[in-house]
Amino acid sequence: MYKILIVEDDMVIAKSMKNSLCQWGHETECITDFKDVIAQFVQLEPHLVLLDISLPFFNGYHWCSEIRKISSVPIIFISSMSDNMNVIMAVNMGGDDFIAKPFDLNILVAKVQALLRRTYSFGGKMDVIEHKGVVLNLNSAMLEYKNNKLELTKNEFKILQILFENIGKAISRDDIMTRLWESDSYIDDNTLTVNVTRLRKKLSDVGLSDFVKTKKGIGYMVE
């Protein structure tokens, strides 16, 4: 079952699209907070986005650009602004297809199904992990939080990835070092301490003090 995010402020249209796609077995969600589409995007981790151009606060081009900073998920623009200039701009901004309003729901479903097949026939995977507004980009090895971007070293990134994959669970220092060794980062106990200390300093600089917690006698965790 694929997850689809609908970014459409006309609730009649949004509900019609959602109902049609749900009938085909897709898990479909509609945006409710148009001030922060990205937060809902990373929470749902959709396999495809249906995106209107004319939206409250920021237009669809803005949100397409923001999504493209963290993900290559397929995006289909849906808009009545279907002149050549807008279609070209939608594609140039990172859109994969364009459907002009008004449209036939059968055409919408067919295009969605086709794009999902092309994209995920060999298996698709989200390239970001999000927790409490903190986004870890698995492709660029960067962390993003409230418009701040952190460049991470290889070890810092791997440590955070391990903790993000085990939210709420304390991971032992030995387990972390073993994972780092598996990725050809040969470190000892002292080096791990240095890496964690440096990582915490970077996180604190962007307002994430005490984000990585120490569990005495066990290891580290992100709650």
UniProtKB/TrEMBL annotation:
Annotated keywords: DNA-binding, Phosphoprotein, Transcription, Transcription regulation
GO BP annotations listed: regulation of DNA-templated transcription
Domain (OmpR/PhoB-type): residue spans on this chain: 126-223
DNA-binding region: 126-223
Annotated ranges, domain Response regulatory: 3-116
Any one Gene Ontology cellular component term annotated for this protein: protein-DNA complex
InterPro entries xref list: CheY-like_superfamily, OmpR/PhoB-type_DNA-bd, Sig_transdc_resp-reg_C-effctor, Sig_transdc_resp-reg_receiver, WalR-like, WH-like_DNA-bd_sf
Domain of life of the native organism: Bacteria
MF-aspect GO terms: phosphorelay response regulator activity; transcription cis-regulatory region binding
Role: May play the central regulatory role in sporulation. It may be an element of the effector pathway responsible for the activation of sporulation genes in response to nutritional stress. Spo0A may act in concert with spo0H (a sigma factor) to control the expression of some genes that are critical to the sporulation process.
Name recorded for this polypeptide: Stage 0 sporulation protein A homolog
Source organism: Clostridium cellulovorans (strain ATCC 35296 / DSM 3052 / OCM 3 / 743B)
